[in-house]
Specification:
The protein has helices at 2-5, 12-26, 35-59, 170-181, 219-225, 260-277, 303-313, 323-333, 349-365, 376-383, 389-414, 427-440, and strands at residues 8-9, 63-69, 73-74, 79-87, 93-99, 111-116, 120-128, 134-138, 141-146, 153-158, 162-167, 201-207, 229-234, 240-246, 254-255, 258-259, 281-287, 291-298, 339-343, 367-373, 418-422. It has 444 residues and is α/β, with parallel strands linked by helices. The chain has three domains: 1-167, Immunoglobulin-like (Sandwich); 170-193 and 236-440, von Willebrand factor, type A domain (Rossmann fold, 3-Layer(aba) Sandwich), CATH 3.40.50; 201-234, no CATH class. The strands form six sheets. It has a six-stranded mixed β-sheet, sandwiched between helices. A five-stranded antiparallel β-sheet has the order 1-10-9-5-6, with helices on one face. Strands 2-4-7 form a three-stranded antiparallel β-sheet, with no helix packed on it. Helix 4 packs across helix 6 and helix 8 (323-333) packs parallel to helix 9. It starts with a helix and ends with a helix.
């Protein structure tokens, strides 16, 4: 008996009708002739509510419900979830579905209202955007059913508990791979770069087109074909590319609900995949106050999986980054010239000047690209029209911080260090363009 009543709920319609009958009984003190109609309405109300409850209890086993998710979620992307509900009874039923989504989303009102006709099946689709890596636990699915009377609700619980890991975005990785590797379509945001000179990797002989380097004309092939033919070269392969990720507290700053570290992790996976597709060797180094992860640059079939699993486990640190340890580790473990892409964040010129000696030493032995971030919220605030005097002062200070970031770019350029100052949302695209530029210029 207790198990029956624990799943019975009284909706708002029950209390509305109950309150109306109570008011009718109260009015009997002034109008005694209403007593008999009030008693009849009360008995009718109780009879309908009892019938409603018995009907719902009888058909409770005629419902099925299941949840469908992908094996893993992509960090920072919209991930689809499907819930299928089937009504096998011969009654039209109103349903309220409450899905116990992972606690990380902090949603307490995640419900859907649907109407299921007799023997009907419906699918509810929604999307979730995780902003943290880790394990996300889905709980039960609670289905609250009611008939057209709406006096009683009956809860049916489906144990669809499952755990879905949230990995660095594989969806972004595939999307950027298609943009970088496509030889047909020109995608928005990908810069079309003219090759300066050529590398030593010969690819094929082709017909001359306007804009081709005339120094690449193959005169022997031209004589045989009686038309201009040129040698086509491709980018050099098997070059080492290391992604250096600063995990210190400066990378904990959030933008659009994700930390700078997570933006860097997503982009590292994207670029590692593209580098491997272009037959380069990709490696990973993460550090904070100590050296933490070191994956040697290789181009084996399992290399991307190693990098992906390592990035999934990375955690932010509350300490300052130790660049001296980073330099020592790189000098001892990376013997040949490589492309080093450093993800960090400088909020002031002082922060950059503290690590500049180490960056200069690294740039002597390797091609170093320093990636740091614009404060997009400051840029939006400084672009607004001031409404009062205090806004002018605040926007002036915001402009000073923005100007400091640009000074950092200029100062790094003086010492021959490549840099990218980017909005976190455009990080992958800007770094991809930089990588393609360096490849086309033969700098790596």
């Amino acid at each position: 008996m207790r198990n029956i009543f624990k799943d019975i709920y009284l909706p708002i319609r029950f209390f509305i009708w109950g309150s109306a009958i109570v008011m009718l009984f109260i009015s009997c003190y002034a109008f005694p002739f209403l007593l008999i109609p009030s008693e009849i309405l009360l008995l009718l109300f109780l009879a309908l509510a009892t019938t409603d409850g018995i009907t719902l209890n009888r058909i409770k086993n005629n419902f099925t419900c299941s949840r469908k998710t992908s094996k893993l979620f992509n960090l920072g992307d919209e991930n689809p979830v499907e819930i299928s509900i089937q009504n096998k009874s011969n009654l039209k039923i109103n349903c309220v579905m409450i899905d116990e989504i992972p606690i990380q989303f902090q949603r307490r009102d995640f419900e859907f209202k649907i109407v299921l006709n007799a023997n009907e099946k419906q699918t509810i689709k929604y999307e979730l955007r995780p902003t943290y890596r880790g394990a996300y636990h889905f709980g039960k699915i609670n289905l609250y059913i009611s008939t057209f009377l709406g006096l009683i609700q009956y809860r049916i619980t489906f144990n669809e508990s499952t755990t879905v890991p949230v990995y660095p975005s594989i969806l972004q990785m595939k999307n950027m791979e298609m943009r970088a590797m496509s030889k047909i379509s020109q995608f928005k945001g990908i810069k079309k770069l003219r090759r300066i000179g050529h590398s030593y990797e010969f690819e094929q002989i082709k017909n001359y087109n306007s804009g081709d380097d005339y120094r690449s004309i193959n005169w022997k092939a031209t004589g045989r074909k009686s038309e201009l033919m040129v040698n086509q070269y491709e980018d050099e392969r098997s070059q080492q590319i290391y992604f250096l990720i600063d995990k210190s507290r400066s990378m904990r700053l959030p933008f659009h609900d994700m930390s700078l570290l997570d933006y860097s992790i997503n982009t590292s996976l994207v670029m590692a995949n593209i580098a491997l597709k272009k037959q380069d060797k990709a490696g990973l180094i993460t550090f904070s106050s100590t050296m933490e992860t070191m994956i040697k640059a290789e181009k084996t079939t399992s290399q991307l999986s190693k990098i992906l699993n390592s990035l999934y486990r990375e955690k932010e640190s509350k300490t300052e980054a130790n660049y001296e340890i980073l330099y020592s580790s790189i000098r001892n473990s990376i013997r040949i010239r490589s492309l080093l892409i450093l993800f960090t964040n400088f909020e002031s010129t002082y922060a950059m000047e503290r690590v500049l000696p180490v960056l200069r030493k690294l740039s002597r032995f390797h091609l170093l690209v320093v990636v740091f971030f614009e404060n997009s919220e400051l840029k939006e605030f400084s672009a607004q029209d001031p409404q009062k005097i205090s806004d002018i002062y605040l926007q002036t200070i915001a402009g000073k911080f923005i100007s400091e970031k640009e000074q950092i770019v200029a100062q790094l350029k003086v010492y021959g260090i490549q840099s990218i100052l980017t909005d976190p949302k455009n990080l992958s695209l800007n770094l991809l363009n930089k990588y393609l530029e360096l490849k086309s210029r033969g700098m790596i």
